[in-house]
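Phosphoacetylglucosamine mutase
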Amino acid sequence: MADLIPVVVPPQFTREGNTNHLHEHKPILVGRPYSYGTAGFREHADQLPFILYRIGYLASLRARTTGKAIGVMITASHNPEQDNGVKIIDPDGEMLAEEWETYATELVNASDEEFPTAVRALETQLNDPPLGSTGSIVVCGRDTRASGQLLTQAARAGATLFRTQFEDRGLVTTPQLHYIVYVLNHASFGPAGEEGYYRHHALTFKELFDKLSKSLTNYTPKLHLDCANGIGAQKMRKLERKLPNGALNIHFRNETGVLNHECGADIVKISHKAPAGFEDVPVNERCAVFDGDADRLVYFYKKEDGQIELLDGDKIALLIAKFYKEHLSSLGLEDECTFACVQTAYANGNSTRYLEEELGITPICVPTGVKHLHHEAAKYDCAIYFEANGHGTVTYSDRFYELLERSDSEAAFRLRVMSRLINKIVGDAMADLLAVELILRHYDWSVQEWAAMYEDAPNKQIKITVFDRAAFITTKDEQKLIQPGSLQVLIDEAVKRRGEKARAFVRPSGTENIVRVYAEAASQADADLLAAEIARATDDYKDCDSDS
Ligand code: NG1
Ligand code: ZN
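Structure:
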């Protein structure tokens, strides 16, 4: 049996306070257990140093167990600047395997007294993975939040507890860290590191761009980009410099202000309003929006009536699906190649209808959270997955690529290059933006023509802060509440009153201590009223406790 591994024991405290990497005892202000949600741990940044210390350790254990590079991304995405978060990236650039999410939750909720025992138990359960095995390394990255630096130190302290190699990649977008980890473990995929990321995307973009017609009537390269005052600003500028001259004319906005403040993909999607800083943008011009860590992308344009026309993740998915579907048909690969489009309950009802009726693609609905979409997509030779909020990508199998390589037609060439351009590892705002721009160029479409693919069913989303989100339990498809059952009865009645086209559901967030109300109806006024009515009903349940 392997020797017991020595554990550096921090000073002893209970869960009322836990010790961080600086050996400081900090009170825990959160009255509920921490949980590794759909995007890892997210809290006020002050709460996070001891969590990062422990997650740094867990990432090193994962690296030792797999003998591979593992990522630690420090970000709270679209949430406010004062929050932060952490998630672990697995060797294939995917979200952490589910059983490891449980280990993460157990380790983080252990008191200081329990922590060394929890560590030993885990090491034993995993057969004491070797220290310093070749290939095992923890690679850490962070977004622009001020707290990121201290949290990186905490992750380093935890990761190096047992001498695992730790590399700080500094400021990167979330998808860039996924790419970096993937390439470290799959050297043949593409050029390594952040510079490699730019090279890969710029060269692939150019390959397709060079083949597309330059005499265009409706498409224009001018684009206004809301960077959410986040990491996407500096990184997209770097990528843009490497693109062919004249391919894109990006007007960068919201580059250095307060992160996600009145801007960014989440706010634009939920409020249906232009971000701050877009007051002088003329009507009808194409605008794109990143979120704080540049893994979400939505588009919009301002209309004459002062409203915006939003082109969200569903519209992006359908644009890409149309492109893929038409190419597969023209290559005669429709039967040979399994193809799907994966959505969640938040997908607009009209996007689902368009997929089915106009594109002839059977939509697949999975629970919210990237890992669910990604896992479903991976079952097909080629699949497009997108959340309505703008997170998504295209995945494809080796077989798909081989099928395309058999043909030297223009269509096969375009699909091959497009598939390499889109970041198959994870939803990536920068890569998605390049893909959308090339597809619009291919069709010679204005943003209005793209928007006209289908009209969104009027919809409304509301967030409600609750005491314990675990008190709200839904069916697997997340469209009905099992608990509190009496709230579901109220929702059903409210939906019925708004007519045939109405649809609504309430679901607990996996990233914040809130529940989300989503409603669709025949008119915007009806959708607003339906959401408000359900929000009021939900509010009466906000103090529910999962134990009661
Ligand atoms: P939660 O908070 O579980 O709804 C949100 C998004 C998810 C996903 C995660 C990860 C919505 C309705 N939910 O999850 O789709 O993107 O954040 O960031 O947009
Ligand atoms: Zn994000």
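The two ends are 45 Å apart (CA to CA).
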